[in-house]
Structures are given as C-alpha cells and as structure tokens.
Write a structure and sequence with these properties.
The complex is a heterodimer of chains A (about 400) and B (about 400).
Chain A: H1 2-11, H2 20-40, H3 42-57, H4 73-83, H5 94-110, H6 129-150, H7 154-185, H8 190-195, H9 210-227, H10 239-242, H11 252-277, E1 290-291, E2 294-295, H12 297-316, H13 324-351, H14 365-396
Antiparallel strand pairs in A: 1-2
Helix pairs in contact in A: 1-2, 3-4, 3-11, 3-12, 4-11, 5-6, 5-11, 6-7, 7-9, 7-13, 9-11, 9-13, 11-12
Chain B: H1 4-7, E1 23-27, E2 39-45, E3 48-55, H2 63-68, H3 75-80, H4 87-102, H5 108-136, H6 141-161, E4 170-171, E5 174-175, H7 183-207, H8 210-216, H9 224-229, H10 234-238, H11 246-249, H12 275-302, E6 321-329, E7 332-340, E8 349-353, H13 355-361, H14 363-367, H15 372-382, H16 386-390
Antiparallel strand pairs in B: 1-2, 2-3, 4-5, 6-7, 7-8
Helix pairs in contact in B: 4-5, 5-6, 5-12, 5-15, 6-7, 7-12, 12-15
Classes of the chains: A mainly alpha (about 400), B alpha+beta (about 400).
Amino acid sequence: MDLVYQLATQLYPAFATWPAWLTVTIAVLISGGILMTLVALGPIVYVYAERKISAFMQDRLGPMRVGPYGLLQTIADTIKLLLKEAIFPRDVEKSLFVLGPCLVVTGAFLALVVLPLGSRLQVVDLNVGLLFVVAASSLSTVGLIMAGWASNNKYSLFGAMRSAAQIVSYEIPEILALLTVVMIVGSLSLQQIVWSQAGGIQNWMLFRYFPLMHVAFAVFCLAGLAECNRTPFDIPEAESELVAGFHTEYSGFFFAMFFMAEYTEMFVISVVASVLFLGGWHAPVPAWQQIGPVGLGPAWLVAKAWALILVMMWLRWTLPRLRVDQLMHVAWKVLLPVALGLTVVIGGLLVIPATRDGFPWDPFCFPITLAAIAVPLLRAAFAARRWQARRDAELAR
Amino acid sequence: MASPTQATGGFGWQIEDLDTDEMILNMGPQHPSTHGVLRLELRTDGEVVKAARPHIGYLHRCFEKHAENVDYPGVIPYTDRLDYVASMGNSLGYALAVEKLMGIEVAPYVQTIRVLMAELQRIASHAVAIGTYGMDMGAFTPFLHLLRDREKILDLFEWTSGARLLYNYNWIGGVSYDLPDGFARACRDFLDEFERITHPELMDLLIGNKIFVKRTAEIGVLPIEVGIAYDLTGPNLRGSGASYDLRKDEPYCGYETYDFQVCSGQGRYGPVGSCFERNWVRALEMAESVKIVRQALDRIEKMEHTPVQEKCPKRVKPPKGEVYFRTEAPRGQLGFYVVADGAGVNPYRVRVKSPCFTAMGVFHVLAKGMLIADVVALIGSLDIVLGEIDR
C-alpha cells in the first residue's frame, strides 16, 4: 500500500493533498486489486500441479492434450466452468445459495490482505495481522454452512455440519500453535514476526527451542490441513461418502468459486506457515536475499509456500481419509493437549532469564533437522532409483 | 424408561437423550460408492445409521428367463454378464455344470488353461475390489496402481479370446481359442512385475497404512456363525476365520493338484471378521493366485497340446436330468443349477446362486449402528457386483 501511495504521489503530486480517507481507499483498492488478480490466477497453477503430481504418483501422464504438456488444460477447464449454466435446483434457498460461495471466497481472499509477501509487498500491515488471518479464514465456515443448508440436500447438510465441527475443532490447536510464535516475538503483526527471524536460517522460528517449535510447526500444519479440508481431513466433501459434500448442488461458476476458495486457502495457510515458522520472505542465507538491486523476498516466500503446498498434495494422493470420530479424536485428544502444553512450556521458558532467547543447543538444531529430513529422503530416493533400475531390467528381459 | 441417573452413574443424562430427529437418507442408486446401481435406504440420526435397507433390482436383466430361451451354448455370453468384473469364473461355472450333466470330461490341457484363466481373473477381480475399496476410504492412488496391472491381465485375455471384459471363453467341452504363442512368457513377465512391484507396494501403501487399518479393523465385524447363517462364501467368509475354499474342499478342474494356501482372517489388527480382514484375505489371495498361475504355466509348457475344442459336442443336448455345480468364483461360491428336459435344445431352467446376493443379505445386520462413512466401508468390504445380485 505504501508503495502504491508513494508511486501515486510521485506521478501526481496533488494526490497527497487529497483527504486521507480517499487516498488510503484508492491505494488499498489498487494494491489489493493487483494482489488479488495475481493470487486468483494461482489456482490455475495449483490445479495443474495437482493433476500432474497425482498423475506421476499414479503412474500416468495427467493432462497432455491441451497445449504443450497439457499446460492450458486448467485454463480450458476454467473457461468451461465459467460458461456453464449455474443450475438452481427448485427447492434451494436462492439468496443463501448464492451468498454461500461468495462468503467462502471472501473468507479465503480476505486473509491475503495482511500477508507479507515481501518487506514492502503487503497491502496493509495490521498490528493484529495474525488475528485477522484467523478471523478471515473462519468466515468461510459460515459460507460452507450456508451453502450446505441452502442446497436443501441431505448430503450437503451432512457436509456442512461436518465442516463446521471440523473447523471449530481444529481452529483451537491451530491458534494455540500460533500463540507460541506470538509469545516469542511479542507481536501479532506479521511483518514484525518476519523481521524477528532475520539473519539466516538458524534464526527461523522452526529452529528455536529445538524440539518444541518443531512440534508447534507440526501441529500447525496438521490443523491447517484440516482447515483447508484436504485429505486426510477432507470429510466435509468426502467424495465416496457424501457425493460432494457441501457443494453437491453447485455447478458452473459457483462451483468454480468453491474450487478457487479451496486452493486459495491452501495458499494462505502455506504462506502463514512460512511466515510464522520458516522465516517469511527471508532467504536461508542473508546473502541470497537479493541479486543486485532486485530483492528476492517474494520469490523466497512463494517458494516456501509452494513447497508446503506440494507436501499437501503429496499427502492427499497418499493417505486414506479419516472418519468423523477419528478426526475429532485427533483434534481434541492429541493436538489440543500437545498445543496447550507447548503454549504453557514456551510461556514458562520465556519467563526464565536463562532460556529467554532459546535453548543453548539451538544453533546446532538446523543441521540436526536437515539431517533428520535429508537422510530418509535420500535413502528413499536411492531405493526408488534401484527399484526403477531393477524394474527396467525386468521389463527389458 | 429407567431412571436416567441410574443408567449413567449419576451424570443425570444418558446417551439416548442426545437423540434428535431421524432422517431418511437415500444412498444411491447414483452414488459414487455403492458399487453400481444399489440403493440404500438409511435411517440416520446425525451420522449414526439406525437402520439400513438395501433396495436391489435396478440392473435386473432376466438372466434366468433368457437362459430358458436360448440353447445351452447360447447361455454362456449371458453368464459373462452376471459378474462382469470376473467373467471367466462365471462361464467356467456354467460350462462345468453342463459338462457334468452331459458327462463330458475335458482334456488335461483344457483344464489347465481354464485354471490359468480363472486365477488370472481372480487377480484382476480382487485388484478391482481392493482398489475401489481404497477409493471408498479416500485413497485414490492404490486404485490406479491396481487398475494398471488389471489392464495387463485384460491384455492377456484380449490376446487370447479377443475380448477385454466379456470373453465368451469357456465353452461346453472346451475353450473358444487356444493360447497364443508366447502367452506363457508374457504371462510370466506380468506375474514377475505384479509379485515384485505392485503387490508389495499395495501392502505398504494401502493395506498396511495406519489410517486404513484404523478405519476398517474395528467395524463391520461378522462372527463366523452369522456368516454361515447368512450363507456368506468366499473371501467374505474366510475373512471371519473360516478356512473354507471350494478349490480345496470340493476340487474341480484338477485344483487338488496345485500347491496353494487357503487364506483366512487372522485378526492381526482387530477382531476377526472385520472389514479389514475381508480385504486382507483378498490381498493375500492375489499372491496365492500368482502361485497357481505359475504352476499352471509350468504344466502347460510340459504338457501335450491337444485341440481345445476336441470334446465340444456338435449339438449340446443333455439327457433329461438336473445338476447343481458350484465353483469358487472370486467373490465366493457361484452355483449353477441346470435342469434339462431331454427334449429341446434349450435348458428347461437355469438358476444361479450368486455369492454377492447372499453377501448383500447380511448388510442390514452389520450396518446397524454404524456411521455413514462405515456403511461405505462395509459395502466395499463385502465386494458386491450389482450385475450378479440383480442378474
């Protein structure tokens, strides 16, 4: 927003003399519009990525026909969805039926306003930014319930009820996990949280208070996965049980809105996770922060977020779905006590002077984590290479 | 009603007080996981199913009446359409029944081909069963892995019989085509790949997955007595711990000479007879079938190759009489009851005892008190094919 403001005053000096409410509104509208357009195009990329990733995991090619390597497939699908008739079944509550998807999309996109995509690339840096993100993403629950109820379909109703129960349950551990970071930084402003992690990868939140923040990150990711209604927590739209859950009756543009909201929400959760735990737009090594005059902050953030999205897709195509009661079990009996314990312990550690700035072994934490992740991954990769070689040999015989 | 404080140890309420209005939920016939056109009428209270009633008949094609109006060989294409996921097994059962009626004894070579085809079909059928079951649980990837291998079996079938789904392969007194040259090698290649890659991957990715086990190992428990009372057969009954397989107990086609194990539920992760056990039995049976196919291939290579239609009668006109013959189809015991009047060339009556129909019969017993998600898991574990239920 500041950037737009400065740009406008440079181009048209009289802009600064306009009343404040007008300048602020214009600046927010312009920057928000740009950001939203960019992010709204995101789902096109994610859908393509999801289809390709699932295809490679399932030993097939995925979209190949539309454009080179099927690159234009999602664009074609989007056009098809937009041109399709939006069917309103006879007994739906029409106004709520329309309002539902609108609210879902609003909830998903509203959070984008405060996300710090770069040190200056942010629509507005609210001092309660994190609270705003959580509040905005809860808004989509209202939309889901509205859509499910207004559809006047039993499957939709089941889906809506499940989604309400799920999001209410998972928001608590999610917020408690966020709270650990907030306590360490002492601020709810996302930009300040990012700044507090400056100076290289060892300063990222993930690598402080060695095992504790790892657990917090895991809790946040699990709860975030449930917030996005992704497998293994996709019971609100469980295809094999509830046909399509809350969006059973939707078609055409309104269906596309749900789709867009889902993928945007994935992006939001991933960005929040990267901002809170993975250093936001900071490069792992301070020297990589920019190439000459070009800052790479947004690229780093998007790279981190996409890596998390990749993990989400990977999980989706690997794991079966949980049952409703098991889902509640995970939320209330596993994640909640863990998150609560974390909050208490980290709060205590922050009070003790000796551990106010982290454990003494924290500097060694990064190599340990790296090894813990890299060794199994490399082993799996080598095993897969050997497997592939053997299979090729089998088939060639 | 008893005093509430008594029932709950003083908390002042009991679980029935939480009951709300019941809702009738029609699952199907166009539901993604009723495995065909099955309609389930569920009386639900929230997510809990209070009562379930299956409605069948959407796919009724009058098989038994049709069979009375065509001659004996003409019934074979119709039998293919009973359990369209495992056509080979159906036509084999019918052909064996009519052969028994006419007293035809086929050559060992033909018998071996039949065993080979039936076991390949069992692998393909179980691949679909387990794959779709995984999909019911929300795991999509194993389904495509298994279908990829099923395609290879279908390629072998197409190479042999010219068809990929409805083969019309087992004829009365023989089979329609001899095995093509190089079949054994192609089949071995497939078996190697299946045994070394797909099957271990399946066991790791789906069967051993903790979420999958948690979801299936405790639900739909079918005690062995109930299973026998409802006439469940095949993997459904073996999942309850019974070691009962017609290939061992009433061998046909020379199954007694093959070396294989009958797999039954062990109760490794939960009670014996749960949805998980039924599925686990299927997964193990695939490995056993691979063993049988390998043995059959070995024999075929050593054996004298007689013409496959040597014993096919020119005119199929059995003497007056009736016969009941049952075989172990992939989904359980498939029985054909054929009555011949000795006068016409058409069967007087053909009756099918289908394993899926009896499996559907136990559904309402097991579904009571389940969650909706478990109902889907239950249908999948019973592995029904509506083509065979409705006929």
